[in-house]
Design a protein that fits this description.
By secondary structure, the chain is an alpha+beta fold. It has a domain of about 100 residues: Histidine kinase-like ATPase, C-terminal domain (Heat Shock Protein 90, 2-Layer Sandwich). Helix content is about 45%, strand content about 20%. The strands form 2 sheets. It has a 4-stranded mixed beta sheet, with helices on one face. A two-stranded antiparallel ribbon has the order 1-3. Strand 5 and strand 6 form a beta hairpin. Helix 1 packs across helix 2 and helix 1 packs across helix 3. It is globular and about 45 Å long. The relative contact order is 0.14.
Length: about 140
């Protein structure tokens, strides 16, 4: 069956919501692993842009309801594929975006991704209210790096 653009958008939102639910369940399981000292991070290739796009689509409806501009900027120097833990990355970005939308009453939320050598922090989440959370420590590995 051919889906129109609105239906495709609903499917994308449902998929992103399902991923967010799985992420929430994993957070509960991760807490137990952290407490037991057994949390391990993956080192696999993943598409950072695809994850950010999924998370952005997950929160776009809520941000529009509140009249908050939501945007992601990724430096052209950031490679298409990264090596790291995509599940943890999704989890952290989902939590940051969720909290940003929850606690931003007006203005905008911009997520900007740069390489560490471009700026001192590798990722900033900044709200229109001048509140700022920084996330650093994500490393980029480029072919054999």
């Amino acid at each position: 069956t051919h889906l129109d653009e609105t239906q495709q958008d609903y499917v994308r939102t449902a998929q992103a919501s399902g991923k967010a639910l799985v992420s929430l369940i994993n957070e509960v399981l991760d807490q137990a692993k952290i407490e037991a000292g057994k949390l391990e991070l993956e080192a696999v290739t993943f598409d950072l842009r695809a994850i950010l796009d999924d998370v952005l689509s997950l929160f776009s409806g809520k941000s529009q309801e509140k009249g908050i501009e939501l945007a992601v900027y990724i430096s052209e120097r950031v490679p298409e594929l990264m090596v790291g833990d995509p599940g943890r990355f999704r989890q952290i970005i989902t939590n940051l975006m969720g909290n940003s939308i929850k606690f931003t009453e007006r203005g905008h939320i911009f997520v900007t991704v740069h390489l560490v050598d471009e700026v001192r922090g590798s990722m900033d989440v900044e709200t229109g209210l001048s509140q700022q959370d920084s996330l650093s420590g994500f490393r980029v590995q480029i072919d054999g790096g």
